[in-house]
Predict the structure.
Amino acid sequence: MMSAAAVRVSHPTGKLSGTAILPASKSEANRALIIRALTGEDFLIHNLSDANDTQLLNRILSTPAGEEVSAEDAGTVMRFLTAYYAATGQKLVLTGTPRMCQRPIGVLVDALRTLGADIEYLGEEGYPPMRMKGFSGTGTNQLSVRSDISSQYISALLMIGPLLPQGLELTLEGKISSAPYIRMTLAQMAHFGVQAKFEGNHISVPAQKYQAKEFTVESDWSAASYWYSMTALAQEADVFLPALRFNSLQGDSVLPELMVPFGVKTEFTENGVRLTKQPKEEKPERIDFSDCPDLAQTVAALAAGIKVEVEMTGLESLRIKETDRIAALQNEVQKFGAALTEVEPDVFKLILEKQPENEARVHTYEDHRMAMAFAPLALKLPLVVEEPKVVRKSYPRYWEELQKAGFEVEEVQ
Ligand SMILES: O=C(O)C1=C[C@@H](OP(=O)(O)O)[C@@H](O)[C@H](O)C1
Ligand SMILES: C=C(OP(=O)(O)O)C(=O)O
């Protein structure tokens, strides 16, 4: 199924029940892997994600680096390794997929150069591939970095901060996008014995040593979002998601609150989360995705599927992810009778225009979240998802878990 050109997805009963297995968080796993590499010691990371983004980083870090390393399509791998190779003075070429070479990295490279890294762009200035040429460490420890493009640049810098001779004093300029991911980085650094201070727009990381220590990766709240969407779309639903925690490091754990207006009830139990349907109480208001950009596609697809008009903001960073996610959403929601229109700068309104297509064919733009966000709409009408293998980036078992939940997933051309 993973290699099929497309899958036809349907759900004969529209009723969902049972347990769905989530992948572990690739964000937490990739931070733990980088920090483990920085300690130079071996310790166990439990529940390491089977996501390709994590398996790839684990492979790269556990084998001697050759002359060229590919981060493939994994943003965290590209950004975290750039800082890691800079700080450890490794000399090699860092590249990725053609799309990765269109995802900007200039803010991070400029910051690392200021710290004393020698980095050369091999293609377009500001974009991978880059040649990492060593680290002189003669730079300052004071940095001002734009924080409105990607938090991954900040996380990458923070993780190498304790190893720099004078630590790191980081001033964040502009809006702080994806802020929970910065807090996740600091929380994981604290787990490994490194104390930092985040006040206002300033982060201070004194020079320190990481302590080798086991770490357990939590289940992935971003992946849970697709089960929230399925619960909202099903006629009846009672879904159990094991191992999700209320006190999560992940910003996407806002889902229980965010999904109330869509009619999903969340109960936390000792072993995980139970999702059931409840009446849709109120119309969802304008939703700001600045702190949880990976949930935007889930919500846009769901709103089209349950025919709820919604306003979405905080979407700037979506243009530079696995694909231009705004353009991709605008194309695909149309097939479900909706339109996503920018009504004022950075405010997008999803409105309902016409009847959904019979058996819509969803294009996935090499973006795992396009496949996973639209597949739940099969609870309403059968649909076709192209390039189903894209899910391997973060949730390789996605289609198997759908089948367990009563979906029919059949290979087609
Ligand atoms: O640090 C991380 O693990 C991530 C940060 C976010 O990216 P941006 O900071 O680029 O928004 C998020 O979209 C991505 O899936 C994972
Ligand atoms: C944006 C994502 O990943 P990355 O930026 O790490 O490629 C994602 O998983 O939605």
Notes: The chain has twelve helices and 22 strands. Residues 142 and 297 are 37 Å apart (CA to CA).
